[in-house]
Amino acid sequence: MKILIVEDDQDLREITTRSLEKERYVVSQAPDYRTALLKIEDYDYDCILLDIMLPDGNGLDLLKELQALGKRTNVIILSAKDSIEDKVVGLDLGADDYLPKPFHLAELHARLKSLFRRSQREGEHKMQVGNIEVYPDQFRVMINGKQVELNRKEYDILYYFMSRPGRLVNKNTLAESVWGDHIDQVDNFDFIYAQIKNLRKRLKDAGATPELKSVYGFGYKFVVE
């Protein structure tokens, strides 16, 4: 899962980033409104942790920009401003949750997991496509009832496609989502091809019915024959 932290407090931003990365999230940062705006224009995120009071703008205006861009991104407002008006406006503009500062990182993790379960699989703790089952809270993969061991990037790629079965995915989009912003600027995508090749072999060896197919000139598609 890819998260953008929009927060001007450097210490809080770094502490939150390290904590989220330990939980295997891909994390990007924006210390101000301008940087955040450029990032949401150029990249997609599974969730944005959004401070309201920024040095060069109001975080609530970023919610309006998300709407204008037509992007349906999960948003949790993290703000020391605890007024009812801010909460109502933020939720009306599309925010999914509101967590006042200071907050415990454990509560943030719990809210993120709950949010992702609600938005992607209607609250279920298990994702299933064909005979593949993924348990995100445990980073566990089961095929035909047997556990399959994957390395971190293999798991991240599988999770990404399990969240989007049947959808055509551009390799640039896949790279950004699994490896982070600016990875699309590398000279080649050999690192993706290698991970995809290894993942395909593991799935085939385990008897998976879904298949990760290449779409020439574009990217990949996760389908069940």
From TrEMBL:
Keyword DNA-binding listed: yes
PROSITE patterns: OMPR_PHOB, RESPONSE_REGULATORY
SMART domains: REC, Trans_reg_C
OmpR/PhoB-type domain: residues covered: 124-224
Listed name of the protein: Two component transcriptional regulator, winged helix family
4-aspartylphosphate modification, residue list: D51
GO annotations of cellular component type: cytosol; protein-DNA complex
Span of domain Response regulatory: 2-116
Keyword line: DNA-binding, Phosphoprotein, Transcription, Transcription regulation, Two-component regulatory system
Molecular-function GO terms, alphabetical: phosphorelay response regulator activity; transcription cis-regulatory region binding
GO biological process: regulation of DNA-templated transcription
DNA-binding region: 124-224
